[in-house]
Design brief:
The complex is a heterodimer of chains A (about 375) and B (about 500).
Chain A lengths: L1 H30 L4 H13 L2 H26 L7 H18 L4 H30 L3 H23 L21 H6 L8 H18 L1 H11 L1 H6 L4 H27 L10 H12 L4 H24 L5 H22 L1 H27 L1
Helix pairs in contact in A: 1-2, 1-14, 2-13, 3-8, 3-11, 3-12, 3-13, 4-5, 4-6, 4-11, 4-12, 5-6, 5-11, 8-9, 8-11, 8-13, 12-13, 12-14, 13-14
Chain B lengths: L2 E12 L2 E12 L3 E6 L5 H8 L7 E6 L2 E3 L4 H6 L2 E4 L11 H6 L12 H14 L15 H14 L4 E5 L7 H16 L3 E5 L3 H7 L2 E6 L2 E7 L5 H9 L17 E10 L8 E9 L3 E5 L6 H9 L6 E6 L2 E2 L5 H6 L2 E4 L3 H5 L6 H5 L10 E2 L2 E2 L1 H14 L17 H14 L4 E5 L7 H16 L3 E5 L3 H7 L2 E6 L2 E7 L5 H8 L9
The chains are: A mainly alpha (about 375), B alpha/beta (about 500).
The structure holds adenosine-5'-triphosphate and magnesium ion.
Chain lengths: ~375, ~500
């Protein structure tokens, strides 16, 4: 009963943020001398006009679903997983390495690839979890550091062992057997990027929703997230749950990496952190940290990303407008939710800052007078 | 009449409950007006409306004769209304001064003048005898001091009408005395006070008038001169309250809790526990008396497993539990009503039914093979709600956060007693409860005892200790002063022992 009310409120908030984002986009289009109705028409048309583009929208959304799910899941335990990008890279690396090394039949190879990506991501994220549980190292700091460790790991390993035939900066293309793309799906969607990842994503959204709502594991994780002290006093092992939560979040991001590097793409570039890892934060925010909310938010972002090129081609509106719309939506989603929740903290930071400034000025004045 | 506040026909509904059912409430300038009512009667809600935290669905508010619309607390501030909430709203790693000026800092020059604020706070503190150090961090000062900071916050904002929501629930008896003095001082300076409290004695001692509400409706307003504690209680509950416990003789059996030579270090600035030895037997209630901060918190945390013991043993039955995890201790038959209900007792963002299984969710029949059985959990919660008369708008589906303070307490007490533990550690079990609820909880604790279970109660209320305990242990400076039979002692003797004097040695 109660949960329904809450879901409704979150839904309204998110829709409101989307609306404000679209209005801001419209204003920008108008200000740059374009017709916003044309702009939106082509933007959405670009993502939906034919079966191929719909396929691309879904394919673009797939890693976003995983990344968003990863952030949202950790958040339920009160953890802020900024390490989605690194976990995706490691997941992708495991997937690519296996895909390039073994010559097995497709079903077996794909299963192993997915399991490897899942485990890789989970292990990668379990480290910040462990650091937090043991030494109280803040996960924001350690996950960001882990992102760069992943970045450099890929940077050295890929050219060393999986170098592509032409370029130093990318891996070989994975064989068809190692790709999540399957012919029947590709042809069903007229040759789009769509791959098995989208089905996997739906399955995992359902699994995560189930874990959070129905299982004792989900109950524990949320209890720790809402009130650590009460959970501890009730006999719930806070540390174990922190490690668990980070590992599951990492597993999700790792799978997201597989759907990106051996699904959407077919090789790995070095020297880039996948943007989806960070976009996942926005997706989780707009999806109000609920699994199905994340799903819808990721589809919407996927649509904007897919449509922006078409909009640019058909009008003179720069594709950055679509990014601006996304950014504005994030901004409104974030401000409405976060400001309300963290008002005290924000105030403290503000006050601290002002006191510091004041003291500094005082000091300057004092020393200046001497 | 010279009414400074008039709330007329105020109505406020929440899902499933009418918190204020056309309440008319009038306060005279310069009086202390008490607001009395059962847990969940709507007292806090009515005051939150006056303070602008909630909007009434209908009805109007007049201040000094003029109709006003108080849509947020800033407007209330401007109108001279201040409020100390049931659960304080202070930022813990801020200093006193920072907390007081929070939200007020002049944004024009983007600069705050902490120095002048500091000076003014010092002055106010002196003027009203509050004795607050403006530079102290909130996390370092006692709850009593924190409350004074809340008072200073109101005074700093030039409030004239001061609302206190259960200010004494969290105070030690000594602090209550000082609080009353402070309130009288405020009245002398021309302030008006609205006081919510469940303690009838305080109302009789300090209030001029008292308005009683029941189920969101006004029962009546009386002059305290013309009434008595008994009459107030009857008005509030709607039946005679006995004030007398049906206490049979205790039949204690073997010892279940044996604390042997326990030493625990205290957290920053607090005394720990030194070589503490105490036994609690099945079938008895042992009360621990003592002035706050003499090691009670450390003792409780060591028993339940939140704090490590430096040396000594804690035996529960035949098992040494001092090295067990918290969960293992709970499984050995330990239950705990915590001192701080929001910190250690409840997950406020969980519903009542979710809170009811906080310690048992992983066990049959609440779950099996890792899957929660929501229909069983719901049924179970509804039973506890009925047994303990927990008033919540949406029953087991209500968020714990939406419950009134007293009902949150009842939910915790209900959960812990319902688990039928061999040993119940009850810290201030009736904090914030109305007299009817206190009577009921006391009866349930006695019932536990009569069934051969043990209760170890830690309370700052001497009355509660004397009424309920079979034996009374007194703690001072982290050490056990003595343990005495409850029927062979009295308030005075315990009081002396609480100050560290040994029994019979006192002059
Ligand atoms: N934000 C809210 N959402 C839903 N219900 C609420 C909310 N606030 C209060 N209520 C309900 O309104 C009723 C009155 O609550 P209120 O807090 O005013 O009680 P109270 O008289 O202060 O009780 P206590 O003595 O226990 O503090 C209760 O039934 C409570 O559950
Ligand atoms: Mg209240």
């Amino acid at each position: 009963m109660k949960t329904k009310v809450r879901v409704k409120k979150d839904l309204y908030m998110s829709l409101f943020a989307v609306l404000l984002g679209l209005i801001a986009g419209a204003i920008l289009m108008t200000a740059t001398g374009n017709n916003p109705f044309d702009g939106f028409y082509f933007l959405f048309r670009g993502g939906l006009m034919n079966i191929e583009r719909i396929g691309n929208t879904l394919a673009t959304a797939t890693p976003l679903i995983f990344a968003g799910l990863s952030v949202a899941f950790a958040f339920k335990t009160g953890l802020f997983n900024i390490g989605g990008a690194g976990q995706m890279l490691i997941g992708g690396l495991c997937a690519t390495a296996i895909g390039l090394t073994f010559d097995w039949p497709k079903p077996i190879l794909l299963s192993v690839i997915l399991v490897a990506a899942l485990i890789g991501g989970a292990l990668w994220a379990s480290l910040p979890g462990l650091l937090k549980a043991r030494f109280n190292v803040h996960e924001v700091v350690s996950t960001i550091m882990m992102n760069w460790i992943a970045y450099w790991t890929v940077f050295y390993l890929v050219p060393q062992y999986f170098k592509g035939p032409f370029l130093e900066t990318e891996s070989q293309r994975i064989p068809a057997a190692a790709s999540l793309k399957v012919p029947w799906l590709t042809s069903l969607f007229d040759g789009s990027y769509i791959n098995l990842g989208i089905f996997l994503a739906v399955v995992f959204v359902a699994i995560i929703a189930f874990i959070l709502e129905r299982t004792t594991l989900g109950y524990e994780l949320k209890a720790v997230g809402y009130n650590r002290d009460a959970a501890e006093a009730a006999g719930i092992s806070v540390n174990r749950n922190i490690i668990f939560s980070m590992s599951i979040a990492g597993a999700l991001a790792g799978l997201g990496g597989a759907t990106f590097y051996v699904g959407f793409a077919s090789n790995m570039q070095i020297g880039v952190l996948p943007a989806q890892g960070f976009d996942g934060i926005a997706v989780a925010l707009l999806g109000a940290n609920s699994p199905w909310g994340v799903f819808l938010a990721a589809l919407f972002f996927g649509l904007l990303h897919t449509g922006k090129g078409f909009m640019n081609a058909m009008t003179s509106i720069p594709p950055e407008i679509a990014d601006t719309i996304i950014a504005t939506i994030i901004y409104f989603a974030a401000t409405s939710v976060l400001i309300e929740r963290n008002w005290d903290k924000i105030n403290k930071i503000r006050l601290d800052f002002m006191i510091r400034k004041r003291e500094a000025e005082q000091l300057e004045a004092d020393s200046g007078g001497e | 009449m010279n009414h400074i506040v008039e709330m007329v026909d105020i109505r406020k509904e929440f899902p499933g409950v009418v918190a204020c059912d056309d309440i008319t409430f009038k306060v005279k300038k310069g009086e202390i007006h008490a607001l009395l009512g059962e847990n969940g009667a709507g007292k806090s809600t009515l005051m939150n409306i006056l303070f602008g935290l909630y909007q009434q669905d209908s009805g109007s508010i007049y201040l000094r004769g003029d109709k006003v619309s108080i849509t947020n607390p800033n407007i209330a501030n401007d109108l001279g209304i201040g409020m100390v909430h049931q659960h304080f709203k202070l930022v813990h790693n801020f200093t006193v001064t920072e907390n007081i000026i929070l939200g007020l800092e002049p944004t024009k020059a983007f600069m705050i003048n902490t120095r002048s604020a500091f000076a003014r706070i010092s002055d106010l503190s002196k003027q009203y005898g509050l004795n607050v150090d403006p530079d102290a961090l909130i996390s370092d000062i006692s709850v009593g001091m924190q409350q004074r900071v809340e008072i200073l916050k109101m005074l700093y904002r030039d409030a004239e009408i001061l609302i206190f929501d259960e200010p004494t629930a969290v105070l030690t008896p000594q602090e209550v005395q000082e609080m009353m003095k402070i309130m009288r001082g405020l009245i002398d300076e021309g302030k008006t006070i609205i006081l919510i409290t469940h303690k009838l004695r305080e109302i009789m001692a300090i209030a001029d008038r008292c308005t009683v509400i029941r189920w969101g409706k006004v029962v009546g307003t009386v002059n305290t001169e013309d009434t008595s504690e008994e009459k107030l209680a009857e008005m509030m509950v709607g039946r005679k309250v006995l004030f007398e416990l049906n206490k049979k003789e205790a039949h204690p059996r073997k010892e279940i809790l044996s604390i042997e030579e326990l030493s625990v270090s205290g957290s920053a600035g607090r005394k720990g526990l030194k070589n503490f030895t105490l036994g609690v037997r099945c079938g008895e209630i042992v009360g621990l008396a003592g002035i706050d901060g003499n090691g009670q918190k450390e003792l409780v945390e060591a028993i339940i497993g939140l704090r490590k013991a430096d040396s000594g043993r804690i035996m529960l039955g035949d098992e040494d539990i001092s090295t067990l995890s918290i969960r293992e201790r709970i499984e050995t038959g330990l239950a705990h009503i915590p001192e701080d209900r929001h910190k250690h007792g409840l997950v406020l963002d969980y519903t009542v039914q979710e809170n009811m299984i906080l310690k048992t969710y992983y066990r049959e029949p609440y779950s099996s093979k890792g899957l929660l059985d929501w229909s069983f959990i719901y049924e179970h919660a509804e039973n506890v709600i009925r047994d303990f008369d927990i008033r919540a708008g949406e029953g087991a589906d209500s968020l714990a956060r939406s419950l009134s303070g007293g009902n949150q307490q009842k939910a915790i007490v209900g959960r812990e007693i319902d688990s039928n533990p061999d040993l119940l550690i009850a810290v201030q079990p009736t904090r914030g409860l109305d007299v009817g609820a206190i009577e009921y909880i006391h009866q349930r604790l006695l019932e536990q005892r009569d069934q051969g279970k043990a209760v170890f109660m830690i309370s700052l209320e001497l009355d509660e200790i004397l009424d309920l305990s079979d034996r009374i242990a007194v703690i001072y400076n982290g050490e056990l002063v003595d343990i005495v039979d409850a029927d062979k002692t009295d308030e005075n003797e315990i009081g002396l022992m609480m100050a560290g004097g040994k029994r019979g040695v006192a002059t």
